[in-house]
């Protein structure tokens, strides 16, 4: 008997996926050409809607679904867009000119925080700390490559350990 395990909480799923923006069809991320994405289900490793659409699926299944922003990276938070005095960037500007669209990383008390420069004036830099995919609907095409039970160690750590359950 080779009962296939179905995806449920506390199992480890490996999937190949391609994420596209439904309006333009632009691919924003894909595991193609890489190892499949392996994650421990039910431990907030993935965006919520991604796991929800894979529940009950098993090895070999293919699914496609579109998530609203609330089930993906959330809505754009206006408070995460900040105007910073340009003088704070003086050191940086000596190495490279600032440009709109540039991605930079701020060192915050809780750790590094990436942001995108969305506006520049002589005195200020507008920094958008929202996730680049916030506010967007996302379409995922997913193929389930493997489903297995999680090891005790994986459950204790709250994340998956590579294809065979070994520590990374
Ligand atoms: Zn670990």
Task: Give a description of the structure.
The protein has 168 residues and is mainly beta. The mean pLDDT is 93. The strands form two sheets. Strands 1, 2, 3, 4 and 9 form a five-stranded antiparallel β-sheet that branches. A four-stranded antiparallel β-sheet has the order 5-8-7-6, with no helix packed on it. The protein has three helices and nine strands. The protein has two domains: 11-73 and 133-157, Chitinase A, domain 3 (Roll); 78-128, Thrombin, subunit H (Beta Barrel), CATH 2.40.10. The two termini are 31 Å apart. It binds zinc ion. Zinc ion is lined by residues 157, 159, 161, 167.
Kindly summarize this structure in a few lines.
By secondary structure, this protein is mainly β. Helices cover 10% and strands 37% of the residues.
List the helices and strands and how they pair.
Elements: E1 11-20, E2 27-30, E3 37-40, H1 48-52, E4 62-67, E5 81-85, H2 90-95, E6 103-108, E7 111-120, E8 124-128, E9 138-149, H3 152-157
Antiparallel strand pairs: 1-2, 1-3, 1-9, 4-9, 5-8, 6-7, 7-8
Bound molecules: zinc ion.
